[in-house]
Write a structure and sequence with these properties.
Helix content is 43%, strand content 13%. By secondary structure, the chain is α/β, with parallel strands linked by helices. It folds into 2 domains: 201 residues, 2-enoyl-CoA Hydratase, Chain A, domain 1 (Alpha-Beta Complex), CATH 3.90.226; 48 residues, Lyase 2-enoyl-coa Hydratase, Chain  A, domain 2, CATH 1.10.12.10. A 6-stranded mixed β-sheet has the order 1-2-3-4-6-8, sandwiched between helices. A two-stranded parallel sheet has the order 5-7. The chain is globular.
Length: 270
Amino acid sequence: MNDRVAIHLDNEGVADVRLNRADKMNAIDSAMIEGILAAQDRLRAEPRLRAVVLHGEGRAFCAGLDISRFKNIESGATRGHTLASRTHGIANAPQRSAWGWRELPVPVIAAVHGVAFGGGLQIALGADIRYVSSDVKLSVMEIKWGLVPDMAGIALLRELVRGDVARELTYSGRIINGDEAVRLGIATWAGSDPLAHARGMARNIASRSPDAIRAAKRLLNRSVDDDAAALLASESREQERLMGSPNQIEAVRAEMEQRPPAFGDLLPDA
């Protein structure tokens, strides 16, 4: 990690990932993107990982792109890369900072407060679940700067909201609060303490069979692009792999004996 992102992994396998640039409302600069990518790489390699809580330090989740980046564009400063280059699998580095949460093998829960504008909202959209404060301010704000969402925002929005809603938010750049975000499908829940809510759900997920949770995320990720036949076949393969496995047997025994489960090692990678 660099100083932009902090991680703490507890004994239950829940990783607390904090955007850590509070003096700039966690605005995105190159170091923030590098810190997020490093955090994702570390978490991807952690066998004890069960769930992730993603949140921002200070007054905001993430205010979007650091304004100095726009000044560089105005001055004609050159970038050290081209956005068209696929440097991280199907994505470039900024896209991976949002899409990479979707690619982690475990559920990611974003706790969003203050503001999440532009790229900050796109990072939150990469999470599996979004809990927001009722008074949060969210915006697909790129149009304000004469740009389009380019951190996987369109790819992530398409499964959350109707097409006309995605277009209206993208074309207008208008700001919505937490309650409207839930109505539209951008947020899962809105209330007074999204971080506490996220941590509670992460502990709930961490108490479930880790093999089943990871299989469920793989299936849900496939559901966006796979046709019905492919998805049905994937369901069957995942279920056959789980049935009779040590952690599946332990889940059944723990439920029958009314005790907390004691899960063991993960199945080999699917």
